[in-house]
Amino acid sequence: MKKGLLTMILGLCFSILCTVPIFAEIYTYDAGFSAVSDRAFHEMAEHGQWNMEYDGDWEGVYFRCSKLPYSFLGTSDGCTCSCESGSDIVSVKITVPGGRSLQEEINHHFEAEEYVNTAAKQTEGMAPAEKARWIHDYVCNLVDYDHEGIERLNSGQGEANYSVYDAFTSHKVICEGYSRTFWAIAGAAGLPVRIVLGTTNGREHAWNEVLLDGAWKAVDCTWDDSQTGIRYKYFLTDITYDNSWAQ
């Protein structure tokens, strides 16, 4: 594959992942890759790029680069990724739009990671189902739905809050922010967890699944965070949403 074409594809992939949910996609928490991502972000902060060892497998390069947005806990909306190959090194760069600083974005990532790890530590010693419920309640208590943000987004007047950093600092996020925050804390707590991006009632939506006793169970903190308090209608359910489950 030509480098220019790969750059274009990666840029498109990052733009889509960071701005509009992809239907019928599932992203599973990968503790090993999260550690790789941290090294990548540290290197980008210091040198402006991540130099990744290249073994001739462009598909592998694409896979690792395309996973970066969901490992990025900062405010990564609109970021694009590009890479180019030397003899044995692939240089990966993230471009931040809107005059925002990459350093600031990366600082947000590590700040959010500290919040996540602090929360996850509080689940030590709990059984898996108990962890899932504690994190579900924690997320619902941490944030409110970003109604103003979704109005801005729908009207084309700006972005809504949806990053893990937003959840811990502004305490207002849309559904993707709820699911990303649950995913990050549950993953750090050792639960097999994934983000599901799909549709509900014909509208874009994001939620989670956790693996308990060999079965994936749905967790939807957004819909369980009601104005009258936390509910458990969408906690550890077998509910299937529209066009949502990857085959």
Q: Could you give the topology of this structure?
A:
Blueprint: H1 3-19, E1 25-28, H2 31-47, E2 50-53, H3 58-71, E3 80-85, E4 89-95, H4 102-121, H5 128-142, E5 144-145, H6 147-155, H7 164-169, E6 172-173, H8 175-188, E7 193-200, E8 203-212, E9 215-219, H9 221-224, E10 225-226, E11 229-230, E12 235-237
Parallel strand pairs: 5-6
Antiparallel strand pairs: 1-7, 2-4, 3-4, 7-8, 8-9, 9-12, 10-11
Describe the structure.
This protein is α+β, with helices and mostly antiparallel strands and 247 residues long. It folds into two domains: 84 residues, no CATH class; 113 residues, Roll (C8orf32 fold). 47% of the residues lie in helices and 22% in strands. The protein is built from nine helices and twelve strands. It has a five-stranded antiparallel beta sheet with strand order 1-7-8-9-12. Strand 3 and strand 4 form a beta hairpin. Helix 1 packs parallel to helix 3, helix 4 packs across helix 8 and helix 5 packs antiparallel against helix 8. The longest helix has 20 residues. The two termini are 27 Å apart.
